[in-house]
Amino acid sequence: QVQLVESGGGLVQAGGSLRLSCAASGRTFSSYLMAWFRQTPGKEREFVARITWNDGITSYADSVKGRFTISRDNAKNTVYLQMNSLKPEDTAVYYCAARPLVYSGSGYAAVNYPYWGQGTQVTGSS
After folding, report:
1. Nearest residue to 17 via CA among 55, 92, 67, 75
2. Neighbouring-strand partners of residue 6
3. Most CB contacts within 10 A, which of 28, 34, 42, 77?
């Protein structure tokens, strides 16, 4: 049973930083794609960043490129999202997601991820 537990959300002023963590358990994740999505009320879940666990290849949404960094710690089985220069429009519930690399379909679409955490609220104040 895959379990993903996010932490690290909170309230931060515009321009500030936060680091989200996603503790993963229940599988060996070396052949998994890990991602962060975010969602605001009334909108679909939006891709933020992803990383392949085995070789650390990353990809970002244009809206966060240069400000956010996704990384993983193999020893701790944890994925991180370092968020810098936060903007009010970054306010959302942030979700950690996981899928096996062998799954078909876009790795940028939430529908193609079978495993999700419970989410953590990030609020950027102006």
Report:
1. 67
2. 22
3. 34
pLDDT of 126 above 90? no
* pLDDT tens digit sequence for 20-55: 999 999 988 889 999 999 999 999 999 999 999 999
Whole-angstrom distance, CA of residue 120 vs CA of residue 126? 20
Token pair 């495993």: residue: 115
- Do you know the residue count of the chain? 126
**Token output for 109:** 């679409």
> What are the tens digits of pLDDT across the range 62-104?
999 999 999 999 899 999 999 999 999 999 999 999 999 999 8
